[in-house]
Design goal:
It comes from Flavobacterium qiangtangense. By secondary structure, this protein is mostly beta strands. It folds into two domains: 13-136, Jelly Rolls (Sandwich), CATH 2.60.120; 139-236, Jelly Rolls (Sandwich), CATH 2.60.120. The protein is 0% helix and 54% strand. It has strands at residues 3-7, 13-16, 20-24, 42-50, 55-61, 65-72, 74-79, 84-88, 91-96, 101-106, 114-121, 131-136, 147-151, 159-160, 166-172, 177-181, 187-195, 198-200, 203-205, 210-214, 218-223, 228-236. Strands 1-20-17-22-15-13-14 form a seven-stranded mixed beta sheet, with no helix packed on it. A seven-stranded antiparallel beta sheet has the order 2-3-4-11-6-9-12, with no helix packed on it.
Length: 239
């Protein structure tokens, strides 16, 4: 029997630090909701807006797969592994924190906002060697298509993480219909609506809503508005 949980955009946690405006789908920092701790191994889904010239100073992480998806503007990354890089819309950044890393993320553009998703996934291996990776995607490949951006396999499309998880991005014309077959038994799927309106199964979802579905093998997705954008995150349901 298929199970679903709907998180409407206006029910998310919200923290406005002036330079940082963040909406939390799951409990994070000062936002604690015992009913919203995680969806399977998906632990954090933050929808962040960073003012020009501001950012996150150097801070530590360990034993977490950390994914950044820029939606607008640029983010400059530095870490204790010696990496310095800039990610922009169309890029995907992953870090395996493993045994421990420090990193910082800054919006170096004084005049321009940066908007990005910060996503944390529990790994399936502890204390791995920390690693950093990023790629630039061809955004045209997600027009009326689900473009794979993350998988467990280094030889597969997108970047890889230490988890049996697959992420896809899609941008659809109005009334376009597609379906997604889950890749691993026991996984669920969490859909996050980046733009516009969709019907997933028989549930209507709108911009910045999240919908979790599990105990299913396939979901049907229909775009209800023009240029509707969706992020699908297939993840194991057991920690």
């Amino acid at each position: 029997m298929e199970n679903t949980i709907l998180h409407k955009a206006n029910t998310r946690g919200h923290a406005n630090h002036g330079w940082l405006d963040s909406h939390h789908t799951f409990s994070f920092a000062n936002y604690h909701n015992p009913d919203r701790m995680h969806f399977g191994v998906l632990r954090v889904l933050n929808d962040d807006r960073v003012d020009g010239g501001m950012g996150f100073g150097k801070h530590p992480h360990d034993n977490m797969e950390i994914i950044s998806i820029p939606l607008e503007g640029d983010l400059e990354h530095q870490d204790s592994m010696g990496n310095t890089a800039v990610i922009s819309k169309g890029d995907i950044q992953v870090m395996s924190a493993g045994t421990g890393i420090f990193h910082s993320e800054y919006n170096k553009n004084k005049e321009k906002l940066t908007k990005f998703l910060q996503i944390w996934v529990y790994p399936n291996k502890k204390n791995v060697t920390p690693r950093y990776d990023q790629i630039t995607l061809n955004e045209a490949e997600r027009h009326n298509n689900l473009q794979q951006i993350i998988s467990p396999n280094p030889d597969d499309a997108g970047v890889w993480i230490h988890q049996d998880a697959w992420f896809h991005l899609g941008k659809f014309d109005k009334d376009f219909v597609t379906s997604y077959d889950l890749k691993k038994s026991g996984n669920g799927i969490y859909a996050f609506i980046l733009k516009g309106d969709f019907k997933i199964g028989n549930i209507d979802v709108n911009e910045r809503d999240g919908l979790g579905i599990w105990d299913t093998q396939n979901i049907r997705i229909q775009a209800l508005s023009e240029d509707a954008e969706i992020l699908l995150m297939e993840v194991p349901m057991s920690l």
